[in-house]
Amino acid sequence: MNxxxxxxxxLPFLSISATAQDTFQHQxxxxxxxxEWDDNQSDELxxxxxxxxxxxxxxxxxxxxxxxxxQTSSLNASFNKAGGDAKLWTAGxxxxxxxxxxxxxxxxxxxxxxxxxxxxxxxxxxxINDATEASLxxxxxxxxxxxxxxxxxxxWQAQIRSFVALQATAGVDLSAxxxxxxxxxxxxxxxxxxxxxxxxxxxxxYLTRSLALGAEIILFDDSNVDxxxxxxxxxxxxxxxxxSLQASLAHELQFSTWEASVGVTGRF
Length: 268
What we know:
Blueprint: H1 6-10, E1 23-36, E2 42-58, H2 66-70, E3 74-82, E4 86-96, E5 101-111, E6 115-129, E7 132-145, E8 149-165, E9 171-187, E10 191-206, E11 212-220, E12 228-238, E13 243-252, E14 257-267
């Protein structure tokens, strides 16, 4: 995939959103950002998103985690643009059953000057308690490149995520996941069928409901793929009952990549 979307898929800044009101069902966000690569090149980032929750959800706890902690059915759509030509459209949702099981899925299209990517993500899981979920997903990616070839990937992902409330600070958002990615390529001149496993550990420490410091480690079982280590800081400033400002800064140590963003969110 085009490297422009690595921060959109791997870093937390797009998930930050806030408001000061007690409950809401609609959430709309616009985020502007920039990423600076290790070769001194930079790219501008734009993200638009909308979420609709089928039941009102509370704003108790860290603002950025309200959707996760709500454990309710929802629909969402988003658009992301990175650099001059990379665009990502996504639509999906989550349906929660009465016995704490849920199904989740989305469909996304990515296009740039190298290839088009059609991605189907389907899965489900179980809410272990009111702050923990476990899930399993299957992700199919079909790649349409400028070549006479068949190209795609199949991915399985298992994840557990939990928010641990603390007395001295707001708490810690912890997640651990395993992902197996199998890539297949076939043309008249060349073919391959390869598989790689990735292990992702992430922690966001919420000092307050607004301020969080994060760290993430991604390890691969393929010596040809470099591990990734990221640090981040996120802040949320409520402006009243409906609008809020968000800001974030992230640094990926392995490739010396910096990313900064600011956003505005409305909830009603």
